Amino acid sequence: MKAFARLAALAALAAASAPARADVPLDSVRARPAAGELIYFLLPDRFENGDSANDRGGLNGDRLKTGFDPASKSFYHGGDLKGLISRLDYIKGLGATAVWVGPVFKNKPVQGAPGQESAGYHGYWITDFTRVDPHFGTNADFKALVDAAHSRGLKVYMDIIANHTADVIQYRERDAAGGFPYRSRADYPYSRRPGPSGEAINAGFAGDQDSSAANFAKLTDPTFAYTPFVPAGEEHVKVPEWLNDPAFYHNRGDTTFTGESARFGDFVGLDDLFTEHPRVREGMIAIYRQWIENFGIDGYRIDTARHVDAGFWQAFIPAMLETAHARGIPNFTIFGEVAREEPSNGYIAQYTRRDGYPAVLDFAFEASVRAALGQGRGTNVLAELFDGDVLYEGGEQAALAMPTFLGNHDMGRFSSLIRHDRPGISQTELESRVRLAHVMLLTLRGSPVIYYGDEQGFVGDGNDTDAREDMFASQTASYLDNPVLDATRSAGFGHFDPAHPFYRLIHELAALRATHAALARGRQVVRGYSEKPGLFSVSRFDPATGAEYLIAFNTSDVPIHAASVVGTSAEILETLYGTCPARVSAPGSIMLDLPAFGSAVCRLLPSSPGTQTTR
Question: Residue 540 sits in which domain range?
Answer without folding.
Answer: 521-606
